[in-house]
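<tokenise_the_fold>
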Amino acid sequence: MKGEVELGPVGMERPDLDDLDRRLLSLIQEEFPLVKRPFLALGEMLGASEAEVIRRAERLRDLGIIRRIGPILDMRKLGSAGVLVALPVSERRTEEVAEVVNGYQEISHNYLRPNDTDYNMWFTISASEKRIEEILAEIKEKTDLDQLVLPTRRIFKIGVRFEIPE
């Protein structure tokens, strides 16, 4: 299965990764096995035990290197729509507004882009058009902020694979 692996923030102190860590990170970006015991299968591919792969994946998660392992779904084929939304959030309200926005399971990829424009908090919503309207109305009611709403017109899918530095 090709999926998504979110790696941690850039600019942090570089953790100590060995060859097995790097191979594990590379492998799970390319094909995470859809089997009953995926870490056993990964271990077989890497020449390591299931327990060792689990231990390393947990360590990489705890270090913030792996934030998420999951599928990439074509939400349009599931009857959903998508929008990119931006809010103008003052520095003093960043945490408060982020908590509101992050409270919706339909919202992903919430980013703060300070000094970019007046609209500095950007996030995506994937849901039915009716649900998107509900979420936007609730966020407006809870935050009283203007919203820049940019509906998805055309999707350009790219494959992202991060090279793991030595």
Q: What stands out?
A: The radius of gyration is 19 Å. Helices lie at 19-30, 38-46, 50-62, 94-101, 129-143. Residues 3-71 form a domain with the Arc Repressor Mutant, subunit A fold (CATH 1.10.10.2890). Residues 40 and 50 are 4 Å apart (CA to CA).
